[in-house]
Amino acid sequence: MVEHLPGFDGSHLHEDRIEQSVGRIAESILGEARTRHMSAAYLPHRHETLEVLERLTWLMFPGFVGPRGLSTSELREHVDGVVRDIAARLVLQVSAALRYQENIARGAPDFAQRSYHCDRRAASIVEQYLARLPEVRRLLSLDVQAAYDGDPAAEHTDEIIFSYPGLRAVTIHRLAHELHRLEVPLLPRIMSEHAHSVTGIDIHPGARIGESFFIDHGTGVVIGATAVIGAHCRIYQGVTLGAKSFPKDERGRLKRGTKRHPTLEDHVIVYAGATILGGDTLIGAGSVISGGVFLTQSVPPGTVVRGPKVDVRTRTNPETPPANYAI
């Protein structure tokens, strides 16, 4: 319920000024095509996409997310209901994304035919996507175990599923990555940027990540679109796997589709604040990249990379008050 100030009903507003603002806002919308989308083509709905994502997590971690108290005898019925709900919602969003990509405008002469083609393609994509979910669940189970094995502060794998932002970001990434592999426009980025907003971890859905992956703490992690991460890797907060440069074509436009981000082979650890850049940068298996390192060159397997040693100086603080440190 909206609470109004006592005695205020809006009558003090000047109608002519409101009308002037309405006119100027409408003109602004019509004059700037980049920030509006009116009737040219369909768009997916962000809210519906995130509803689908939420229900997908019901299947990834049943009992932890979504309905509680499921029994073994009820499981198949529960899965059947959730999958059918996801399928119905997702096919609409995928079809809308495909129509957007093909710029199918309402009222066009071939509107019905092209829309039908997008609907059929969307149905096929959703069927393929659902078939991949058991493999996503397998990978996430290994990610949970990797987090438990890599964090002595974790008391149980349940704690990791409930509370670790790294696992949440990786969960959304693995779900978004499968849509990306199926060449679905927009929806994977909607999912990945949602994960970014709630965890502070930015993983492009195009990044390829192997099994048993663990992001500890996680805030400020950036993993670029063409990054490749092998199995049993671990990275910490503030790590960037980014691009060293952005090649341009003869007209000065950014080239897309090139390998811009580094590759980590199996069993690599990257500690907090390290930055690794470049599509041709390869971190060999079993290497350790120390915290704060800035790296733009490949290193062979089994390498420990450290930055310059920091010169730490201390002095007595004359303003330190007397204190009792007993707790």
Task: Annotate the secondary structure layout.
Elements: H1 15-31, H2 46-60, H3 72-101, H4 111-150, H5 157-163, H6 165-181, H7 187-199, E1 202-203, E2 208-209, E3 214-216, E4 222-223, E5 228-229, E6 234-236, E7 240-242, E8 263-264, E9 269-270, E10 275-277, E11 282-283, E12 288-289, E13 294-295, E14 304-305
Helix pairs in contact: 2-3, 2-7, 3-4, 4-6, 6-7
3D architecture notes:
This protein has helices at residues 15-31, 46-60, 72-101, 111-150, 157-163, 165-181, 187-199; strands at residues 202-203, 208-209, 214-216, 222-223, 228-229, 234-236, 240-242, 263-264, 269-270, 275-277, 282-283, 288-289, 294-295, 304-305. Helix 2 packs antiparallel against helix 3. It is an alpha/beta fold and 327 residues long. 43% of the residues lie in helices and 10% in strands. The protein folds into two domains: 40-200, serine acetyltransferase, domain 1, CATH 1.10.3130.10; 220-312, Hexapeptide repeat proteins (UDP N-Acetylglucosamine Acyltransferase, domain 1). It has seven helices and 14 strands. It has a five-stranded parallel beta sheet. The chain starts with 14 loop residues before the first helix and ends in a 22-residue tail after the last strand. It is globular.
